């Protein structure tokens, strides 16, 4: 695999979550959530269905507002700084906002432009991302005819374009075959070796060396606060 991560657009720093709370649809999902991830570190989110793993990832990504608490980066409060969060974090969830008629390569090229990758670097970044997730042979294929695992690999390849220090990953191994799980592990290890951070919701073991685990079930609001 080519070097997937050689420099970050924003330098890695410690992520701090303090007393975080989130409500969805008028209902409390979690409250009083504390966590810390150091540069090079990984935090695995566990917990029953509906305990808020995806919600926490979306909240840190800036896609949902916090009902309470703070998010810090390198000790600076960035709870209300969505532009800072956008420079820091890349979110890999379900691939919903893709143009179905574009090819795999065109899609990655579009994302590279969207993420502000300088024009002169885009072709190289796209090629490295294709190679890292063995998408080279599929580069001319329209996204709409990709299988579930191929789509997942495309979504993961997106992480290698933006070079943001914090990867927010929602069930990244779902639909992947064994070889692709190995590629995912290699990409995550390389990201962390360069100082990158990972927050990952997963029901399976992702072989993240030295990762801490956070059980979202422990932060469920009391029943009288949940509604
Ligand atoms: N769009 C929404 N509007 C209102 N409530 C929502 C919405 N999406 C999710 N929720 C609620 O938020 C809570 C947390 O959901 P979330 O998807 O974060 O859980 P999860 O831990 O990721 O679950 P799973 O293990 O099933 O993926 C659930 O009670 C869910 O019903």
UniProtKB/TrEMBL annotation:
InterPro entries: AAA+_ATPase, ABC_transporter-like_ATP-bd, ABC_transporter-like_CS, ABC_transptr_haem_export_CcmA, P-loop_NTPase
Keyword Translocase included in the entry's annotation: yes
Domain named ABC transporter: residues: 15-226
Molecular-function GO terms, alphabetical: ATP binding; ATP hydrolysis activity; transmembrane transporter activity
Alphabetic keyword roster: ATP-binding, Cytochrome c-type biogenesis, Membrane, Nucleotide-binding, Translocase, Transport
Biological process, per Gene Ontology: cytochrome complex assembly
Coiled-coil features, chain-numbered ranges: none
Pfam families: ABC_tran (PF00005)
Family matches, as NCBIfam families: ccmA
PANTHER family xref list: ABC TRANSPORTER I FAMILY MEMBER 1
The name this protein goes by in its record: Heme ABC exporter ATP-binding protein CcmA
Organism in which the protein naturally occurs: Futiania mangrovi
Organism lineage: Bacteria, Pseudomonadati, Pseudomonadota, Alphaproteobacteria, Futianiales
Gene encoding the protein: ccmA
């Amino acid at each position: 695999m080519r070097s997937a991560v050689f420099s970050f657009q924003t330098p890695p720093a410690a992520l701090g979550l303090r007393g975080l709370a989130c409500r969805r649809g008028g209902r409390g999902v979690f409250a009083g959530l504390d966590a810390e991830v150091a540069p090079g570190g990984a935090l695995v989110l566990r917990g029953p269905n509906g305990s808020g793993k995806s919600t926490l990832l979306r909240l840190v990504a800036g896609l949902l507002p916090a009902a309470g608490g703070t998010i810090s980066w390198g000790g600076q409060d960035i709870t209300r700084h969505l532009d800072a969060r956008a420079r820091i974090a890349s979110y890999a969830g379900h691939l919903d906002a893709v143009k179905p008629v574009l090819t795999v390569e065109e899609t990655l090229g579009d994302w590279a432009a969207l993420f502000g990758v300088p024009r002169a670097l885009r072709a190289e970044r796209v090629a490295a991302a294709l190679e890292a997730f063995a998408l080279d042979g599929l580069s001319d294929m329209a996204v709409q005819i990709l299988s579930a695992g191929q789509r997942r690999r495309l979504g993961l390849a997106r992480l290698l374009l933006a070079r943001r220090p914090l990867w927010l990953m929602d069930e990244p191994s779902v639909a992947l075959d064994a070889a692709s799980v190995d590629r995912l592990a290699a990409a995550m290890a390389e990201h962390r070796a360069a100082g990158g951070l990972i927050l990952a919701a997963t029901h399976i073991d992702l072989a993240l060396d030295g990762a801490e685990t956070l059980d979202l079930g422990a932060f469920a609001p009391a029943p009288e606060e949940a509604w």
